[in-house]
């Protein structure tokens, strides 16, 4: 019986025999190794009889030292069964498939290599070709880590958005978000819906100016125009529902490449109704007294202030002051804060504390501070009354040559003049007072005064000349 074969079946075996049979062993090994990073010839007993390594990393990991070792002895315990399956499939000419094998290396780590094994057709030998899978495994691990990082970031963003939504919905203050392009309301919390309860349609989708009566719509439009120029601005407008008066604060922010306005509303008439008449009188008085008054939290962040404080600090509006640290205006840096706070916490109040106040332009003036610590309220706070004082100018040592006349004047130089100069000032002050006392004791007799002080006449005359005390001609 004649067996007919196709041209491909007749050509390929002859091509392989003619080509590979003409190559020496080293060249043939390189050809086989070119298919992967490592190529091995395994005998019937599973021993490695030849090996070609095509990867520098594998050479460094000691792959070339496997010659004449059992292939199964070079792999991890969990991979031994895979080795047996690879050799069995190759010996029986079963369909070749890639399997991932782990090899332990020096240092306790392991290397993942993907192998395919084919029957060599000679004494049951098998050719195993492997590819280093570390690069792919590393990329896969980095991909997993990136996915986990993205999931964590997404979870944090989702939680933050949930907290924002909850705060937005539960806040007692009425808050409205407006699209800066269309000037329409795109978000409003329940407090805003309740506050503007006279409107028949929902706030969302309506024009912002439509929430106010005709006389106040121009002011509402101007408010947004001013807020678009930057900063937090406050204006008053009257809503259509009931003609109530509201304090309105608007600020501009950006989100998703769009400009939005954040508008806060508080009903003045409702606020006044909740405040007792006596307390309202006190608030009105504090707002109008000439001395500056400011309330801060326990970290000295400004919560409320009167107009006199704005005048002292040269601030344009209350919004510019609120949230700032009182330290940026009051006291000598790193000196007065600790004294103020510790005294208030210990004694509860402080009276006529002399310090300085710096305004927004960097100018300084002497002030006296009286303060109180309110620790038993729902939100503990500090209250400060700040009064400007007029002092006799004290010359800076070394500039005019004049000296302070009292210890009180010296105390006002603390924090403004270095300690070395203060010590020298104190020494000069004591020396001058002693000379004046000696002259008074001796009836202005300089010779006797020099003897009382233990000085020579010439030294006394020199000091009299230095301090400008009387006639220094040297005549007694």
Count of helical regions: 16
Main β-sheet description: 5 strands, antiparallel
At the fourth level of CATH, the homologous superfamily of the largest domain is: PAS domain
Mean model confidence by pLDDT: 77
Query: What is the CATH class designation of the largest domain?
Result: Alpha Beta
**Assigned CATH architecture of the largest domain:** 2-Layer Sandwich
Number of strands: 15
Strand content: 15-25%
Which strand order does the major sheet show?
2-1-5-4-3
Rg from alpha-carbon coordinates: 46 Å
Shape: flat
Q: Give the uncertain stretches in residue-range form.
A: 1-20, 393-403
- The structural domain count equals 4
User: Helix proportion of residues, in percent?
Assistant: 25-40%
Structural class call reads: alpha+beta
Tell me the distance between the termini: 158 Å
The CATH topology assignment of the largest domain is Beta-Lactamase
Question: What can you tell me about this protein's structure?
Answer:
- Strands 2-1-5-4-3 form a 5-stranded antiparallel beta sheet.
- The chain folds into 4 domains: 13-132, PAS domain (Beta-Lactamase), CATH 3.30.450.20; 171-272, PAS domain (Beta-Lactamase, 2-Layer Sandwich), CATH 3.30.450.20; 287-388, Beta-Lactamase (2-Layer Sandwich); 407-467, Orthogonal Bundle (Arc Repressor Mutant, subunit A), CATH 1.10.10.
- Strand 6 (174-179) and strand 7 (185-188) form a beta hairpin.
- With 476 residues, it is α+β, with helices and mostly antiparallel strands.
- It contains 16 helices and 15 strands.
- Helix 14 (419-441) packs across helix 15.
- The chain has helices at 7-20, 25-33, 56-60, 80-91, 134-170, 190-195, 214-228, 268-274, 277-288, 307-313, 318-321, 336-347, 407-411, 419-441, 446-453, 457-467; strands spanning 38-42, 48-53, 99-104, 110-119, 126-132, 174-179, 185-188, 233-238, 245-255, 258-267, 292-297, 302-305, 349-358, 364-374, 381-388.
């Amino acid at each position: 019986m004649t067996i007919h074969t196709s041209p491909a079946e007749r050509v390929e075996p002859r091509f392989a025999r003619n080509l590979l049979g003409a190559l020496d062993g080293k060249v043939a090994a390189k050809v086989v190794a070119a298919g992967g990073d490592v190529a091995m010839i395994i005998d019937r007993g599973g021993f490695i009889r030849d090996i070609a390594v095509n990867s520098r990393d594998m050479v460094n990991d000691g792959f070339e030292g496997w010659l004449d070792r059992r292939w199964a002895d070079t792999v991890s315990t969990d991979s031994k069964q895979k080795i047996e399956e690879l050799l069995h499939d190759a010996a029986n000419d079963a369909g070749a498939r890639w399997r991932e094998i782990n090899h332990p290396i020096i240092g306790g780590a392991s290397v993942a290599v993907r192998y395919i094994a084919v029957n060599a057709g000679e004494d049951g030998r098998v050719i195993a070709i492997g590819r280093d899978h570390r690069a792919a495994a590393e990329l896969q691990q980095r991909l997993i880590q990136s996915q986990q990082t993205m999931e964590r970031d997404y979870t944090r963003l989702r939680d933050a958005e949930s907290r924002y939504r909850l705060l937005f919905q539960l806040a007692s203050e009425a808050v409205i978000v407006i699209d800066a392009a269309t000037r329409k309301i795109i978000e409003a919390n329940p407090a805003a819906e309740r506050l503007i309860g006279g409107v028949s349609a929902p706030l969302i989708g309506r024009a912002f100016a439509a929430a106010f009566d005709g006389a106040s719509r121009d002011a509402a439009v101007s408010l947004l125009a001013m807020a678009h120029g930057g900063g937090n601005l406050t204006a008053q407008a009257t809503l259509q529902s009931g003609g109530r008066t509201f304090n309105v604060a608007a600020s501009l922010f950006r989100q998703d490449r769009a400009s939005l306005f954040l508008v806060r509303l508080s009903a003045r008439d409702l606020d006044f109704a909740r405040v007792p008449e006596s307390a309202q009188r006190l608030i009105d008085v504090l707002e109008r007294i000439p001395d500056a008054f400011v309330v801060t939290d326990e970290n000295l962040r400004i919560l409320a202030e009167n107009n006199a404080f704005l005048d002292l600090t040269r601030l344009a509006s209350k919004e510019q002051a609120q949230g700032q640290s009182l330290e940026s205006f009051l006291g000598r840096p790193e000196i007065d804060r600790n004294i103020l706070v510790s005294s208030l916490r210990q004694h509860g109040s402080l009276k006529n504390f002399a310090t300085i106040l710096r305004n927004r332009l960097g100018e300084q003036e002497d002030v006296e501070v009286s303060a109180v610590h309110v620790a038993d309220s729902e939100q503990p706070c500090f209250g400060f009354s700040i009064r400007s004082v007029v002092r006799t100018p004290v010359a800076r040592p070394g500039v005019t040559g004049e000296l302070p006349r009292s210890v009180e004047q010296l105390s006002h130089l603390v924090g403004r003049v270095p300690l070395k100069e203060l010590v020298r000032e104190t020494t000069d002050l004591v020396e001058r007072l002693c000379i004046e006392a000696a002259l008074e004791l001796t009836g202005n007799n300089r010779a006797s005064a020099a003897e009382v002080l233990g000085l020579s006449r010439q030294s006394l005359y020199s000091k009299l000349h230095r301090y400008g005390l009387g006639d220094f001609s040297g005549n007694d």
